[in-house]
Write a structure and sequence with these properties.
Bact_iron-sidero_bind; 2 domains; transport; ABC_transptr_periplasmic_BD; Rossmann fold; alpha/beta; about 15% strand; 6-stranded mixed beta sheet
Length: about 375
């Protein structure tokens, strides 16, 4: 099956409908690798797997499934146009509260025991910041290639690429880093100035980290897992070595992958395997990073999850538990704002002798979001 080619064929014969409903024409097949603005205010953005999408004007309303793309939109100052996200509990607005920047309080959830095709018609946004293959290849969503093509033809185009992990077999086309994807979204909204400003803040943070990281022997090997309960027993493993955007902070902090050489793979749409405390004890990582607790404070996490592990007959023998090196793992979906906060937090937790205080300028970030300067 070649879904990209199918979409381009559909759109090549249905551009009048797309132009009428969405104010754009999608899927031209142009090999242009970036955004191309014309004198009449239209723009073209090229991103795999869809290809080139042409906009007659800047989209005003939009949605995202993965909240990394929602975070990109908020960072670009267009959060007021966000109508829906996949799962609102993964849209971590407490970061925005700390920055005192605007965001939509209650975006519509796309997920409700599946994804309803009709909801896309009801929302009627100008652009879907979603990888269409993500919708098509997740069996739990209940959508197929025809559904996705219909949404693209009769509602609005897709611009997006699943970037948070790189373990899905169906993702056999180009991947993008967090900031490469962020640049594409900035082109969609004509907010390249904000993208450039965020890139500067990001680069300054990484330069500070690189200058102070401890020697390799003093960096931990970490185990990254997901389990959202306060009394966890089984965990979905992720590979820290996975180059997806969701693991960016681990790579930037040069934290090792405790599962290297074990044969244990990472979570994907086709691999839903789990590991228990016995399996973790065989690896005995220096640190454990547990996803699913992003809305807890460090104190709340310690008083629930870490306390449970410390009293557990097997977990209590883990080096990471004994040394209190069990941490919140950060959002699965990381946009530029989430990433700044999580990189800082992980640096402070893993390398307390090297880092303290705030590692990036909150006021500067808020200014970029609000004013683009």
């Amino acid at each position: 099956m070649e879904p990209t080619a199918t979409r381009r064929t559909v759109l090549a014969t249905g551009t009048a409908t797309v132009g009428l409903l969405a104010g754009c024409v999608s899927g031209t097949g142009d090999d242009n690798e970036g955004g191309d603005d014309s004198d009449d205010g239209s723009t073209a953005v090229t991103m795999e797997p869809v290809g080139t999408v042409e906009f007659d004007s800047v989209p005003e309303t939009w949605l995202a499934y993965e909240s990394d793309y929602a975070d990109m939109g908020v960072a670009l100052g267009v959060g007021d146009g966000l109508q829906a996200v996949g799962e609102p509990y993964r849209f971590h607005t407490h970061y925005y509260d700390e920055l005192d920047i605007p965001y939509p309080a209650e975006p519509t959830p796309l997920w409700n025991d599946g994804v309803d095709k009709e909801l896309f018609y009801e929302l009627d946004v100008d652009v879907h910041l979603v990888d269409p293959n993500w919708l098509e290849h997740n069996a739990a969503f209940g959508l197929d290639a025809d559904d996705v093509s219909e949404i693209e033809e009769y509602v609005a185009p897709f611009v997006g690429n699943t970037i948070f992990r790189r373990t899905d077999e169906w993702h056999d086309y180009e991947y993008y880093t967090l900031y490469e994807a962020f640049e594409k979204v900035a082109q969609v909204f004509g907010r390249e100035d904000r993208y450039e400003a965020f890139s500067t803040v990001h680069d300054e943070l990484l330069a500070e980290i690189d200058a102070s990281l401890p020697d390799e022997d003093d960096r931990p090997d970490g185990l990254l897992v997901f389990e959202g309960s306060n009394e966890p027993e089984e965990f979905s493993p992720y590979r820290i070595s996975d180059e997806g955007a969701g693991n960016k902070h681990y790579r930037d902090l040069e934290i090792g992958d405790a599962l290297e050489g074990t044969g244990i793979g990472g979570l994907s749409t086709s691999d839903r395997g789990t590991i228990d405390y016995e399996a973790i004890l065989d690896v005995d990582p220096d640190a454990i990073f547990l996803r699913g607790h992003e809305d807890k404070s460090r104190e709340e996490f310690e008083e629930t999850v870490l306390e449970y592990m410390a009293d557990h007959s097997v977990a209590s023998d883990l080096t990471a538990v004994e040394n209190e090196q069990v941490f919140r793992g950060g959002p699965i979906y990381q946009g530029p704002i989430y990433n700044l906060f999580v990189t800082e937090r992980t640096a402070l937790e893993c390398y307390p002798d090297q880092f303290d205080g705030e590692l990036f300028d909150r006021d500067r970030v808020a200014e970029i979001v609000r004013d683009g300067e």
